[in-house]
Amino acid sequence: MSEEVLFGRQPIVNDRLELVGYELLFRDPENFRHAVVPDQARATATVITHAFSQFSIVAALGHCLGYINV
Fold first, then answer.
1. Is 4 exposed, middle or buried (0-12, 13-18, 19+ CB in 10 A)?
2. pTM to 2 decimals?
3. DSSP letter, residue 31
């Protein structure tokens, strides 16, 4: 049985509106349109785990920096 993996990417831009990175955000496969986060520590751990194990960093971020709110 495979687990569906989702996370959001919020663009981060500089003062010239140039893309400099993405904030990686928790998304629940059951309710992905709205961020429902009952356990913030678990949500952060899920984003980190999935971003580094289920995807390659290049696939998740491209050439940009990645930020995770902890």
1. exposed
2. 0.64
3. S
Which spans in 1-70 are helix H? Answer: 40-53, 57-61
Which secondary-structure segment (H or E) carries 66?
Answer: strand 65-68
Q: Which two tokens stand for residue 27?
A: 């998304």
Give the pLDDT of residue 32.
57
Alpha carbon dihedral 34, 39, 44, 46, in 10-degree steps, equals -80
Two structure tokens written together for 50: 């999935």
Between strands 7-13 and 65-68, the pairing is unpaired
Q: How wide is the angle at C-alpha 64 spanned by C-alphas 59 and 19, nearest 5°?
A: 125
Spatial neighbors of 44 by CB under 8 A, at least 6 apart, are 26, 68, 69, 70
| Tokens read off for 6 | 């989702």
